[in-house]
Amino acid sequence: MASSEDVNVRICGQEIIKYDLEIKALTQDIINCPGPHSALAELNSRVKEKFNKLRLRIQDLEQMAQEQDTESTRLPILMEMESQRRQMLSNQTAWRKANLACKLAIDNMEKDELLHGGESPSTRQRKVTKESLVESSSNITESLMSISRMMSEQVKQSEDTIGTLATSSKTVQEANEEFKTMTGTIHLGRKLILKYNRRELTDKLLIFLALALFFATVLYILKKRLIPFV
């Protein structure tokens, strides 16, 4: 059975992957965002939230690596942490590029609308293109979110495993304490039995000496009465 530390590391890694997939899906939504700027701002707010959670979990993974007892268990976790940190930086770069491209597209569309007093043919064409891109990429986004949900379920299962491990550990500790108590009781009982055995031997010896003294006294009295002049 895996230790609780191993399960915690695995849960942390799964949550990092989940946040990574969610950021990728949101970045794709930004690329396909037709506007307005308020919709883009909402997407950016969600991306920032995911990045904050991802950054915290990567820090947690680094802390877990430092808490390992051996170098052989510490190094793989540190390598995974560095890999996830590089992936986060790559996601940040992709997010900034998608954000700038979307802002530029929205600005150009708004300028065209102002210049032509409404939607120009090029604006309508861009909207149609945006809508087709949104439709074609919706399957990708849905797939990423589906994977993210699966990762969430795995994290929940791992958390349940930790709870089971904690309960088992507590049961083992209680059994160990009970065993120590029973061992102490057995040792005490053994000492008492040895003490009683020694006392029994002493009592038998005292009884034997008392009987010997009694019979000697009786013989002495009989001797004096039956043979008074001897």
UniProtKB/TrEMBL annotation:
Family matches, as InterPro entries: Sec20, Sec20_C
Q: Name one GO molecular function term.
A: protein heterodimerization activity
Topology relative to the lipid bilayer, per the entry, is:
Single-pass type IV membrane protein
The residues covered by the Sec20 C-terminal domain are: 136-226
Q: Which keywords are on file for this protein?
A: Coiled coil, Endoplasmic reticulum, ER-Golgi transport, Membrane, Transmembrane, Transmembrane helix, Transport
Which GO BP terms sit in this record?
retrograde vesicle-mediated transport, Golgi to endoplasmic reticulum
Localization per record: Endoplasmic reticulum membrane
**TM region(s), chain numbering:** 205-222
Main subcellular location: endoplasmic reticulum
Q: What are the record's GO terms for cellular component?
A: endoplasmic reticulum membrane; SNARE complex
* Domain of life per record: Eukaryota
Q: Which Pfam families match?
A: Sec20
Indicate the segments annotated as coiled coil, or none if absent.
44-71
**Region annotated Disordered, chain positions:** 113-132
Q: Where is the signal peptide?
A: none
| Presence of keyword Transmembrane helix | yes
Family, according to the entry, reads as follows: Belongs to the SEC20 family.
Q: What is this protein called?
A: BCL2 interacting protein 1
Instruction: Name its species.
Output: Xiphophorus maculatus (Southern platyfish)
Taxonomic classification: Eukaryota, Metazoa, Chordata, Craniata, Vertebrata
